[in-house]
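Support request, please re-run this one:
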Amino acid sequence: MVATALVVSDLHLADGNPAWEPWGAAQQATFGGLLAAAQPGCALASETVELIINGDCFDFLLAAPNLGARAHADLNAAHVKWANIAAAHPAWFAALRGFLRAPGHRVTFVVGNHDLELLYPSIRARVRSAIGAPPGMVRFCLAQRYQPFPDVVIDHGCQFDPYNALAGVWPLESAPATPADLETTDARGLVGPLSLPWGSRYFYQVFLPARLRLPYLDAMLPALDFTRQWGLVSLLAPELAAATLARLAALVPEAAPAMSPATVAGTDDPQVIFAALLPVAQAIMQAFSVLPDGSANMAAASAEGQRLLAALSTDRYAALKELLAYEPTADNQTEDGLLTGVRTYLAQHPTTRFYLLGHTHAEGRWHAGAHQAILNTGTWYPRHARPRPDQWTPEYAAWATRPTDIPYPGHDGRRATVAWLRSEPGAATVAELIAWDAASFIPVPDDALARL
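Re-run finished. Output below.
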């Protein structure tokens, strides 16, 4: 018997607010196409089909209400957020109900850093209620990793990211959950305080005003790092800078000695502002140890920051080009820390052939040893492909300055990626990345950025 698993991640269904809702009609149509392709007799069908949503299906972080300065998730707020999410997406739940009517179909949710509220039993009960499927068809993986087949491990990936790891939730080196370990009923029980990852607290307390002003800051492909994001804020929204430094001091005490809010008070000079932010960025990277190779990587990051600082002394057109354009390389842009962590796991677990990730919003496939591979399903989140330097035009500069008024002049980087897994008893699992293109699913190249 052939068993199929379809794995997606990072759908980010939020509360419908047009200022930040990433799920729209295009994603909904593609989701319907995916579920239709899994129906009996169709291209992705088999005897059993499990839809696995590998974290950040629901975006409790974006959904109102804003948690402000709180360091922990709040159950009462989580229920308000859930009500807003469910009310904004009736078509999504209806499509999933239709999928689950077919014999042998199941859906499994894995927890991510944007939907850590799924760890609350009462929130899981409300998800089941919104879907309205018969008992046992909606399952939750409450472990960090899920092992649907003996040679496949699925993990959202946030635990490899020190900015967004969930603290105190999963024991180190805990075994993956198997299908028999999944929660299939509305279990009751209390959950202790759920600490918000640093990245979530940063979003609420520091990043949100900048994102509302410049929505593309976290919607570019390849992603803009902290330094480039704040270079853009320094150039285009300098009034946010002084408050940013003060709030960062509260979030990262280790970085406080590097901060000088007084130096940026009352100024709109982007160089002065960015010069104050640069040592803060380096202090944050050091505090979270996100540069694995110590001094060499920190020196490279420092040199990059100084180059961007110099660019801010040029005219706005040239400065924006330096901050937003990118030079293509042979390497996929998924964060090295995640790949390093997964490769370490695979070296210790040689029978695992495929390790599936999400989280980074950068889809692709990487080899790890002779018979092992890492697959990242990316995101269905809207993204703009960054232009190369030779593609930079005044239209890009105008859009970067007024992104809420001017359509993006470049390439749509959005790709609805799915990992298609097929398993038969006694045989190795077959796994490939596919993506929706017009009216069907097509293979995704190993380095998905090569198509941008």
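Residues 223-324 form one domain. The two ends are 38 Å apart (CA to CA).
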